[in-house]
Design goal:
The complex is a heterodimer of chains A (359) and B (315).
Chain A: H1 4-38, E1 49-54, E2 57-63, E3 70-76, E4 83-85, H2 88-96, E5 103-106, H3 115-122, E6 127-128, H4 137-142, E7 147-150, H5 158-161, E8 168-171, H6 180-184, H7 187-194, H8 197-221, E9 229-232, E10 234-236, E11 239-243, H9 248-255, E12 259-260, E13 270-274, H10 275-281, E14 287-289, H11 296-302, E15 316-318, H12 323-329, H13 334-346, E16 356-357
Parallel strand pairs in A: 4-5, 4-7, 5-6, 7-8, 9-12, 9-14, 14-15
Antiparallel strand pairs in A: 1-2, 2-3, 10-11, 11-13, 15-16
Helix pairs in contact in A: 2-12, 7-8, 8-13
Chain B: H1 2-26, H2 35-67, H3 80-94, H4 102-126, H5 130-153, H6 157-167, H7 179-195, H8 197-203, H9 207-212, H10 217-239, H11 245-257, H12 262-287, H13 295-314
Helix pairs in contact in B: 1-12, 2-7, 2-10, 2-11, 2-12, 3-4, 3-5, 3-6, 3-10, 4-10, 7-10, 11-12, 11-13
The chains are: A alpha/beta (359), B mainly alpha (315).
């Protein structure tokens, strides 16, 4: 039964709750926006690194990729001058900023590529800690390290736990990022640590612009649907280890115009495939990347049956002509890496930064 | 008793044929242009590796258990594989590339295995306790591992990588061209063992009793050490270290056959060892669509609890 008074009451109630809802909706959004503008994250690509500028300097937050919680939160008030870096990638990031003088210790020094770091090692101004996992805490104390940057594989090692609380330790999770630009953005962390944030930002913006330009060129030039099918990795024992479909490698292969064989595989790390599967998918492969060895002869020496791989006669490219140059510079310069891969994909290699065709 | 043993031998033989057929013709059927090549260069050598390595490792385990008078002896737990690994590491990391060939690999592995077996045999004369001997075997493996680590610190990255890959153990490394060589070495080892049956049976009763029966104990022990080194060394050279087969299968043979007749034990160990590794590889192929597993993972998953059970039973 229609009752105008009841109808009027319902209408008033709907209007009231509508108004309350509207108020909360926009009220909350406004508050959030204000808070966000106060604390603007200077990292646009990275999933695990956040840097905020504040009156005291830079506030850095590093997220644990597995648990998605903040692992390190620290304030950089003044530049650090004695930094221990435990991975070649970290050396490369500091070298890109021309800050090698601030390195006080490295690991696996014998493999390093950077000429200035090598000179400083010869002059004993940089200490070789030998291995990343088993370094000497005593040596770091003697070297008066203020910061230790490590790769963050698994749990923190006992050595890292023994470091004094005033020594800043930072897990560098760039290797867990999903895109090459997110990886390169970690150079901002090193910029903030060294007091060269603006330079780091400028470098990254240049890298980002170059990367986008090459990617756009690839997209414009690639009119054909017949992309070269790429296989990456090599056989280790019984397993073929290759980058997973959501890894930064898979992302850069796609940007370079390559059809990656395992692009649909889940995960950001590696995939493990049997030889049976590789042989089944082998005939479609037009290009083999990163076997991790410097020549076809070396591949055959390691695994003589590689001669029967359907893709062994196809072009094989690897960075092994200068392995550590790749590990040091490719993370901070994905534009160079993309340039190499896009040339390889197009089958016209003019100037390659890291890769060489295996003979 | 003998009839039951023969029945078990027949059943194991039939099972082996069945598993081999499933391995080769059911799980690895290939179609396409390269199917013949894949069959002869990848699938047949893989099956042969499983057959030969399973047979050879079981037999070397049986011989070691007889020599050490200890059911817990085996090429892996007593560090014989580690001796072979160490000498291969020295070869890979230290030798000039021209010396890296098939003959040098097999020779280095055999010398390493022989020296390790001799060392453990000398030690076993001073240590009567089974647990102590196993701990010394573990220590020896740690020691060889440490030397390998020191050598690696001086090596080039490619050499370290080559050694790392080899150390993982695999049934897929042997090529069709290598198969006849491996088969010759293993068959030679098996044939030699058949000539030792009388001595092996006598040794079960102890050295003194064997001497009374006219067995030349010293020569026999040297022959056992030589055959063990030949079998374990050549398998390690072609497939890398493979765990637990040499320990678990001879014990299984004794438990099922309930005999000390080494002719039956040898035949059963050879068949059951092959059967075990082929079954492991069949399991790997069956699981392949979901996950790719290395051979040593599955041998350890099955072998390690069995060894723990044997140790508990020893108590």
């Amino acid at each position: 039964m229609y009752n105008p008074a009841t109808f009027q009451m319902y209408r008033s109630l709907i209007n009231f709750f509508g108004l309350v809802f509207f108020f909360f909706l926009f009220g909350c959004t406004d508050q959030k926006t204000t808070e966000h503008s106060k604390k603007e994250n200077l990292c646009q690509h990275s999933q695990y690194l956040r840097i905020f500028k504040n009156p005291k300097g830079y506030k850095v937050e590093i997220l644990d990729p597995d648990q998605q919680r903040k692992l390190h939160v620290f304030q950089i008030q003044k530049p650090y001058t004695r930094i221990a870096v435990l991975s070649a990638t970290h050396v490369g990031m500091l070298a890109a900023l021309d800050q090698q003088e601030k390195i006080c210790a490295v690991s696996n020094a014998k493999y390093l590529h950077d000429a200035r770091v090598k000179r400083l090692l010869r002059l004993k101004r940089i200490e070789d800690l030998q291995t990343e996992m088993g370094f000497s805490v005593e040596t770091l104390l003697q070297r008066k390290a203020q910061v230790v940057v490590y790769s963050g594989f698994g749990n923190e090692s006992q050595q890292l736990k023994r470091l004094p609380s005033n020594m800043l330790r930072i897990a560098n999770f760039e290797w867990r990022e999903k895109t090459p630009l997110a990886r390169a953005e970690w150079v901002l962390l090193f910029g903030a640590l060294c007091g060269q944030f603006d330079d780091a930002q400028q470098l990254f913006e240049q890298v980002e612009a170059n990367y986008s330009h090459i990617k756009k060129e690839v997209q414009q030039n690639n009119h054909s649907n017949q992309l070269p099918v790429l296989l990456s990795g090599n056989l280790y024992g019984d397993q073929w280890i290759a980058p997973a479909g959501q890894s930064f490698e898979a992302c850069i292969y796609k940007d370079a115009g390559l059809a990656y064989l395992f692009s649909k595989e889940q995960g950001t790390g590696s995939v493990f495939k049997s030889l049976v599967e590789i042989l089944r998918k082998g005939p479609a492969v037009g290009l083999w990347l990163n076997p991790g060895l410097p020549s076809r002869k070396a591949i055959l020496k390691q695994y003589p049956k590689a001669q029967y791989f359907p893709f062994f006669k196809k072009p094989i490219y690897c960075y092994t002509s200068n392995t550590n140059k790749y590990w040091e510079q490719a993370a901070v310069h994905p534009d160079w890496l993309l340039s190499d891969l896009s040339q390889i994909a197009a089958g016209q290699t003019k100037k390659l930064h890291f890769y060489a065709l295996l003979k | 008793m003998k009839q039951r043993s023969i029945q078990l031998l027949l059943i194991t033989g039939i099972l082996l044929l069945l598993l081999s057929w499933v391995h080769l013709f059911v799980l690895q059927q290939e179609q396409g242009a390269n199917s013949t090549l894949i069959f002869w260069e990848f699938q047949v050598p893989r099956l042969l590796s499983a057959l030969l390595a399973g047979a050879g490792l079981s037999l070397s385990g049986l011989l070691m258990q007889n020599l050490f008078q200890n059911p817990m002896a085996g090429p892996y737990v007593l560090g014989i594989n580690s001796g072979a690994s160490l000498f291969i590491s020295i070869l890979i990391l230290g030798a000039a590339p021209v010396f890296l060939n098939e003959l040098s690999y097999v020779s280095a592995a055999m010398i390493g295995a022989f020296l390790a077996a001799s060392f453990m045999f000398v030690v076993s004369k001073r240590v009567q306790n089974i647990q102590s001997l196993l701990v010394i075997g573990l220590m020896f493996a740690s020691f060889t591992g440490a030397i390998e680590a020191v050598l690696q610190s001086f090596a080039a990255p490619e050499q370290v990588k080559q050694l790392f890959i080899w150390n993982m153990g695999s049934l897929q490394q042997m090529s069709a061209a290598q198969a006849p060589w491996m088969a010759t070495l293993i068959v030679f080892g098996m044939a030699t063992t058949l000539f030792l049956v009388k001595g092996l049976n006598a040794m079960v009763l102890g050295d003194a009793h064997a001497l009374q029966l006219g067995v030349k104990v010293k020569q026999l022990k040297i022959a056992i050490l030589f055959v063990t080194a030949l079998l374990a060394g050549s398998i390690t050279a072609y497939c890398g270290p493979i765990a637990f087969v040499g320990l678990a299968i001879p014990n299984l043979a004794r438990a099922l056959l309930k005999t000390q007749d080494h002719l039956l034990l040898i035949l059963f160990s050879v068949l059951a060892g092959s059967c075990f590794l082929v079954a492991i590889d069949v399991l790997i192929l069956l699981l392949d669509p979901w996950l790719s597993l290395p051979v040593n993972v599955l041998t350890a998953v099955i072998g390690a609890p069995y060894v723990a059970y044997l140790m508990l039973r020893q108590r």
